[in-house]
Structure formats: structure tokens, C-alpha cells
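hey so i finally got around to running the thing on that chain from the lab meeting. sorry it took forever, my laptop kept dying and i had to restart like 3 times. anyway pasting the input first so we r on the same page abt which one it is
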Amino acid sequence: MLRLKIISPEKRIFDGDVNRVTVPGTLGEFEILVNHAPIISSLESGKVSYEIATGELKQLEIESGFVEVQKNVVSLCVEL
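ok and heres what got predicted. didnt touch it at all, straight out
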């Protein structure tokens, strides 16, 4: 299980457990799964999608941002 934290300058958007996360990296879209290697990447305009623990897929449209993955914690700081 991954812990996903999504924040914007205005508010906290999501903080909870997810099965996977897909983000629009500046070098292309990539998926983050459990035990992903540590990474920091910039994000470009596109959709962030994540599957919550119940299996439901959620999506969020972003303009830009950054993602950090470390020890099964995925932190997204995004502009909407």
C-alpha cells in the first residue's frame, strides 16, 4: 500500500492510502507502485490518476508540480 499526499498552494487535496498513482512527468507519464525507487520529478500539465484502497479510480487535472517518492510515501505538490 502507498500513502499519497496531494497538496496545492491553496489546500490539501488528498491524504490517504492508494494502490497506485500515475503522474504526467515532464519526460512522460509514469506509474508509481508499492516499493518504487526513491525519485523526485517535475510534472507537466495533465491528469494525475490514483486508485484508492477500495479499487475506485480517481483523477485530478493539474497544470504543473512536483512529485517525490520515498519509502512508499508519494508526495505531490501541484498547481491546479
